[in-house]
Every structure is written in C-alpha cells, then in structure tokens.
C-alpha cells in the first residue's frame, strides 16, 4: 500500500468516526440516537465484509502518528462545529477526561495487571489539589498547578501501592475500594477541604487566556466549554501517545511479563514491585491531571462528586472497550458517558445497566469489544 493511499484510507476512517461522534453529541431526540445505534452496527458489519476495517487497521498501524494527528484535527473540527452547543461540548469534554483516566487504568490493569477500583479517588485528589493550590497560590500558573495535581495523585498512589504489593487478587482490589471510601470520608469531615459542602474552584487561565469567558470572538466565538474541550483533547492525546510509547517500549514489555507470570519474570531478573509501582503512579498521574481540569471546568467540587459508583463506571469503560487496548477506551467512554444522557429514561437505572453490561461482556466477550492485538515491536509488524 503506497503512502498516499495509506493516508487517504486513514483520513476516510477518521472522517467517518468524527461524523458518528458528531451524531452522538448533536442529536437530541431519543429516536434519532436509537436509529444511529441501530445503523452503526450494520454499517460496521458491511465495512468489515468489504475488508475496509482491515485496510484502516493496517494503515493505522503503518502510520500511527499520522493517525493520531488526523484524529486530533478531526475532533478540533468537531469542537468548532459544536461551538455554540454548551451541553454537547460539556459531554465531549467529559468523555475526553474519562478517556484520560481510562488510559491510566489501561496501564495499571491492562499492562501491569493491577486492579484499581480507586480511580475516581485519584481523580478527586487531582480536583481538590487544583482547588486548594489555585486558591492559595495565585502567582503560580494554572498549567503548573495542573501538573502538580497530577504529581500529588501519583505520590499518594505510591503510598497506596505499598500494601497492595503485599496482597494478591481480590484482596488487593479490596484495598483500593477501602482507600476510595476512606478518602471520601476524610474530605467530608475535614473543614479545610470544605467538608460535605465542597469547594469553589476558579476557572483556568493559561497564557493569559481566561477559560471562564466565552471563546474569543476573533476566533469565531462560542461557548466557554470550547476552551476546556480543547484542553481535554490535548490532554487525552498526550496520555494516549505516552500509553502507546510505554506499550511499545521495554517498559511495557516488562509490565506485560509481570502481569502474565510474576514468578517467571522474577527468575529472569525483572523487578516486579518496581514495575507495579511505576504503572500505578503513571496511571494515577493521568487521573490527577484529568481531575484538575474537571475541577476548573465545573467551578465547584464536593466529596459526593467522587463516589465508588464512578470508579465502577471507569472500570466498565476499560472492560467494555478491551483490557489493554488504548484505542478501545475512546468508543467505550463515548457510549458509557453519552448514552445515559441522551436516553433520560435509563438515567435512573444507569448503574444497573452498567452492571448487566459488565456481566455480559465478561461472559461473552471477556477481552472486550475491541480486544488488544499482538504486541507491536516495529511499525507494521507484530509478534
């Protein structure tokens, strides 16, 4: 396949994906979303029978950087199309932030084999770090505060991983669940963090650009959510790029080895605790960054915003998409975040439906809707 043809296939695939994303975000009536949900699987099946999906997957493997840049530009174009749609931009921003957190879970769960049911807790740590640092250190740029929020989440994760390293299986999962409950209780009884009433958070201001105001008129104007959507997109793209780099490097190879057989890995000189700590810290760093952006966008945070149900939602995204597949979390996050908002009739039963979906996925598609492919050592090759 020539380079020009490869790029054309990628552009067609990305364009179709952006059109579907636009439909999910822009359409409002339930029957329209239902029609889209019925049409989409049929279209995918037809493309699969025509071998178009194979062509796109092959092209994307051959030119991963071009694919990523094309997708980012496509979503930027989508943000411009939706610049006056406040709710659609809010949903898109939420999806992108959840994608960032889910990529962190992919590193923890999919690469290193660490089950983390406290993802929303580290998301909340990043949010509260943003609120406290932004309120007390006005001279520090917000971009630096976002990075510090991620680092605080990573450092607290390094403390939590110590008891996890001494346990196995469901006992390790219970430790993460207990941590999430303890953190929420701590925030509720501590007046420094606003107690159960929560804290007000100022909007972002990066390079003199105040995100709390409407999008600059010289750039076409639009909702203030446009700025947060762009920031969330860049954050998700950076997290995705780092995740794929880790997967393709000897970092990811060591993590895969530890996940598959820790004893055999140790016999070959691989330090299993070191790689588990690394995976846990990197994943929580992603969650902290996303939490900081979320806090600034929301303008207000409270302990009730970070409950255990949200952690299950994030784990559901990883399971639904495909454990260890960085690409799969994007459509999974879109479905899990957007569909309940579009179908208000199921909003009340959201957690029940998520539970049913997880059970069905684990029973019939244990590797997710888009299973992780073979390890890529070089562009266009696998082993």
Brief description of this entry?
The chain is mostly helical and 383 residues long.
Task: For the structure shown, list the relevant keywords.
72% helix; mainly alpha; two-stranded antiparallel ribbon; 2 domains; 16 helices; 383 residues
Question: In terms of topology, how is this protein built?
Answer:
Layout: H1 3-26, H2 30-49, H3 52-62, H4 64-81, H5 86-111, H6 119-136, H7 142-165, H8 170-189, E1 199-200, E2 205-206, E3 209-210, H9 225-248, H10 250-260, H11 262-267, H12 272-298, E4 300-301, H13 308-321, H14 329-342, H15 344-347, H16 350-364
Antiparallel strand pairs: 1-4, 2-3
Helix pairs in contact: 1-3, 1-4, 3-4, 4-9, 5-9, 5-12, 5-13, 5-14, 6-7, 6-8, 6-12, 7-8, 7-12, 9-10, 9-12, 10-12, 13-14, 13-16
Explained architecture:
- The protein is an all-alpha fold and 383 residues long.
- It has two domains: 81 residues; 279 residues, no CATH class.
- 72% of the residues lie in helices and 2% in strands.
- The strands form two sheets. It has a two-stranded antiparallel sheet.
- A hairpin with a 2-residue loop joins strand 2 and strand 3.
Instruction: Please give the order of strands in the largest beta sheet.
Output: 1-4
Mean pLDDT across all residues, rounded? 87
Q: Count every beta strand, where a strand is a DSSP E run of 2 or more residues.
A: 4
Share of helical residues: over 70%
Order of SSEs, N→C? HHHHHHHHEEEHHHHEHHHH
Name the structural class.
mainly alpha
What distance lies between the first and last C-alpha atoms, to the nearest angstrom?
21 Å
Largest sheet: 2 strands, antiparallel
Number of domains: 2
**Radius of gyration over C-alpha positions, nearest whole angstrom:** 21 Å
**Beta-strand percent range:** under 5%
């Amino acid at each position: 396949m020539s380079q020009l043809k490869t790029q054309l296939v990628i552009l067609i695939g990305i364009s179709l994906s952006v059109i579907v994303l636009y439909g999910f975000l822009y359409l409002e009536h339930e029957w329209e979303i239902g029609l889209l949900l019925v049409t989409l699987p049929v279209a995918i099946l037809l493309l699969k029978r025509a071998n178009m999906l194979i062509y796109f997957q092959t092209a994307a493997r051959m030119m991963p950087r071009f694919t990523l840049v094309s997708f980012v530009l496509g979503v930027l174009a989508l943000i411009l199309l939706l610049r006056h749609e406040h709710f659609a931009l809010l949903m898109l921003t939420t999806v992108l932030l959840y994608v960032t957190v889910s990529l962190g879970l992919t590193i923890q769960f999919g690469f290193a084999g660490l089950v983390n049911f406290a993802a929303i807790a580290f998301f909340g740590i990043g949010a509260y770090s943003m609120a406290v640092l932004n309120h007390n250190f006005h001279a520090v740029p917000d971009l630096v505060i976002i990075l510090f929020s991620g680092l605080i989440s990573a450092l607290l994760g390094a403390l939590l991983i110590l008891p996890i390293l001494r346990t196995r299986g469901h006992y390790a999962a219970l430790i993460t669940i207990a941590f999430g409950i303890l953190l929420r209780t701590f925030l509720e009884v501590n007046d420094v963090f606003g107690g159960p009433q929560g804290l007000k958070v100022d909007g972002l201001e990066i390079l003199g650009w105040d995100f709390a105001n409407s999008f600059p008129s010289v750039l076409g104007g639009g909702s203030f959510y446009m700025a947060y959507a762009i920031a969330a997109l860049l954050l998700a793209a950076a997290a995705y790029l780092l995740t794929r780099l880790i997967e393709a490097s000897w970092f990811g190879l060591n993590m895969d080895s530890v996940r598959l057989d820790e004893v055999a890995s140790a016999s070959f000189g691989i330090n299993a605790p070191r790689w588990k700590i690394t995976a846990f810290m990197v994943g929580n760093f992603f969650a902290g960054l996303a939490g900081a952006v979320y806090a600034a966008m929301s303008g207000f945070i409270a302990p009730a915003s970070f409950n255990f149900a949200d952690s299950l939602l994030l784990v559901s995204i990883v399971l639904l998409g495909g454990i260890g597949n960085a690409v799969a979390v994007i459509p999974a996050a879109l479905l899990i975040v957007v569909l309940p908002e579009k179908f208000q009739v199921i909003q009340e039963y959201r957690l029940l439906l998520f539970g049913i979906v997880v059970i069905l996925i684990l029973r019939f598609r244990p590797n997710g809707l888009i299973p992780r492919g073979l390890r890529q050592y070089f562009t266009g090759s696998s082993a």
